[in-house]
Every structure is written in structure tokens, then in C-alpha cells.
Write a structure and sequence with these properties.
The complex is a heterodimer of chains A (360) and B (167). Chain A is built from six helices and eleven strands. Chain A starts with a helix and ends in a 16-residue tail after the last strand. Classes of the chains: A alpha+beta (360), B mainly alpha (167).
Amino acid sequence: MTLTVADIDRWSADAVRTVFHAAGARGRATLETSRQLSSLSVFDTWEGATAEARRHTNASIRQDLDNHGNESLAVAQATGKAADGIEHAQSELRALRHDAAELHMTIDPATNKVVPNSTFNGPPMAAFIAEDQLQPRLNTILAEANAVDQELATAINMADGDISLAPGHGVPIPGNQLDNPPAGRNAATGQWELDTSRGYDDPNAVPQGPYPPWRPTAIPEKLATGPSTGLLTTDKTGLSDTADGFDLQQGYKLRLTGTQLTGITKMVQGADGKWYQARWLEDTYEMQTTKVMQGTGDLGGITGYPITMPWKPMSLNEIMNTSAMYPDKTFYLPDGCGGSVPIVDGKLPTPTVPIMTAPH
Amino acid sequence: MTHFSRATLRWIAVTTFAVMIGVSAWLLFGPPHARSTDCATAHAMWTYYESQLASERAAAQNTGADNSQTAAAYQNMVDELQAYAGRIATPDIRTKADAIVAINRDMFDQWKRWVAQSQSESAAGLSRSDGQFGSDFAQNARRLKTAHDELDSACRSYSSVARLVSS
């Protein structure tokens, strides 16, 4: 069904954003539940048929939770984009109405046509010329609005479960083949990406590429950016000299920019018996520094105005090194879902593993 | 010269001296009421200055700042300081208030140079322009503190005199 101008007028970007926030929160909560379930090591100490059944059920529940969580996040992403599209279409429409009014023209919301308004008293040719100028702009707005509508419909269908996220996305991977990061990697800064576009009969098959070495994140900037560290004194780093009467204080913010291939791959077997390639993707980041001069000693009441440095790409090692300069302060690595992972003294948090207190 | 003439001359000399002292004091300190108003303006000027520093610092702590927005805020702050100084009539108070405005104008110019130089440098750690700007900042901060102390002292000493006279 083609939209009318009246439909665009009725759209509410705020309402769609409410769905965006709700879906995002739900997705994050579901994935967190799945993560916590994976850290329940109590069943690891059980043995026998009951334990096997419990492990199997546990893995199945986690797979369902992961699928549901990822779908919710995909809905959140789609609705966020749709809300931006709605605001853009409505803004363009307002501008067009303004321009039309100056030419004594108006937009018929039911027919999607630019027509002379009640104050128009020029010759028919003037109306024709004005319509010729304005109608193509209206057609473009309507085309954009229809595209947004289609994306929104897709998102709603995802929420209903009518369609899955991507071809092959639903291939269940039994067991915990993708639960743990490779040696030396951290689940907070990367993830396995399962390539279900092609299944192989042989686990030693060589999957076909090429794969993009880096992909930008599709996460909205607000969610991709972690909170500031606040202003930290550089005096403790030994780089500053407060005896000169000033201390350069710096605040740091990190944002997620995308994911990059690491060359780490493994083949995992799906429930359908086929083998699929999983690739470990590492998140990539940028850092922004805010600097402020602060008077010291008897000049302590005098502060300079802050300056903000441009965002600069930073490797995880560089981020850790910067964090280590302030051992008792916390840096915040964005987790891409609106939350953050704390870095203290150049270290990411160690996952908590429950300790068994009862004997076998 | 008669005794009367000497007494008259002495009286004239004493009166002239007293008038000269009075006029000098008037010129130096201005009318008592205007001076107290100007000191209140100078105090409000410094309070405003401190509030702007606190506000910019808070913005840098939380959300980060955009340099062009900060530049606009900085310019606005200097203009406001100038407006405060412009309302001060008492000459010695005005001179000190003008000095505070001039130092802030210098600091703003230095800040703009720092922004321009720093944008192409490393994002983390200290850079050459940081050190240079830091020294300039400390020098101006010292001048600013001295100017403020003098302003404060001028108003404080006046209020001591005013209290003495009124008692």
C-alpha cells in the first residue's frame, strides 16, 4: 500500500522511539540472562544422566535466549533507524509546505498532489510551473517515506517472529562451541561471528571468502559511546609539573567504531550436521580526550576552558596503556548496547565464576 | 606683618591644604556611594567569572565539549566581563576591573591558539602545545590572581575607611 501525505503527518517518531528503547532494553536483558546462565558452573560438577539432561536443556534455553535477544536488538536497531527516517521525512515535508506556500500552492494530503491554494490568483501557467518545481520533491519524500514504512514493517514482522534475522541465522549450534573466546581474547571486546551462508560436510573444508577486514558498526552513536572518565589529573602520571602552577587534566571517552577480522577461525557443527565457519571479530574503538588547565597551589581557583581533541582510532592495547596511567580510575568501554565495561588499571574485569561449596 | 595678617594667612594655608586633601581623596576614591556600588559590581563580576569556570568544567567532566561551542561560551564570558567593567565609574576600581578583562582576553587568545595547534597532535598524553599553553596559562593565572587581589584589596580598604568614618 502506498502512503499518503496524511499518513506521514500522522506518524509519530516518538512512538517508534519508545519501541526502539523497549526492544533494546529487552534484548540486552535477555542476552545478559543467557550470559549468566552460561556462567552457572554448578552443573559442571554433576555427573550422570540427570546432569547430561540438565546440560542439554541449559544449552537449548541459552540458544533460545540468544536468538530472542539478538532479534530484539535487531528490532531496536530497525526502529531506531525508522524513527530517524520519520523525522527526516516530516522535516522535508515541512520545508516543502513552506516553499509551496510562498508560491501560493499547497499539498493535497489525500491525493499526494501539489495544487494551487485558495490565495492563488495567477495564470494557469504559473500554477503549472510551480507544480512542476514542487511535485518531484513531494514524490521523493513519499518514496523515502515508503522505504521507511517497509523497514518498519520488516521490524514488526521480526518482533512477531514472522521472519528471521538473516538467511541461515537460525541454524542451532549445539553445545557450547561458541561460548568462549579464543585464548588471549576477551568476550567483552569481541565475538564469534557464525557464517551460515554455507554449510560444509567436512570440518576440514576451506571456507570461501573474501570477508571484509573491517565493518563499521550500525549502532547509533549514542549507544556506541561510553561515558567519560571525568577529568583526571596528569600529575600522577609524572608527565605534568604542578610546581609550574598548573596541572593539565584530561578526560577520556571511548566509542565503538566497528569490528575487524582477526584471522582466528574455527569450524563448528550445526544441529543439521553441517559444518560452519565461525570467525572471531574484535571490536574497534576510538578515543576522545578533553583537556583542561587547572591552576595549582594559590592559583587553585583558576581553571582554563576545556578543549576537545578529535576522535582518534585506538587499539585495545593503547586503551589499556592509557588506562594504566591512572591506576585507581575507571575507563568505560562501550558494550554497544548502551552499557559499558569498566577498565581499571589497564585490565578488563575477570568473569565471575561461582565457587562450589558442597561436595560431589 | 601684623599678628592678624599672620593668623589669616595661616588659616588660609590650613584651609587650602584641607581642601586639596579632600579633592585628592574624592578624585581617588570617588563619591562614597558610587564606590560602594562599584565594589559590589566588581564582586559580582568575579562571582560571575567563577561560575562560568565551574560551568565549563562541569560540562567537560560529563558530556565532553565541542570546541566551537566552548569558543562561543568563552567569547560570551569575556563580553560579559567587559560589560561588568563598563558599569564601574570609580577610576581605580575600573582600572583593576579592566585589567581582569584584558587578562581574560589574552587567555582566550591563547586558548584559541592551543585549540588550533593541538588538533593535529596525539589524542592521549601530553603534547608540545600542552606544555607551552600550560606555561602561558600559569603566567596569566598569576596575573589574574594579582589583579583580583588588588581589586579585592581596594574595595576592602575602602570599606574599612567607610566603617571608620561612619563610626
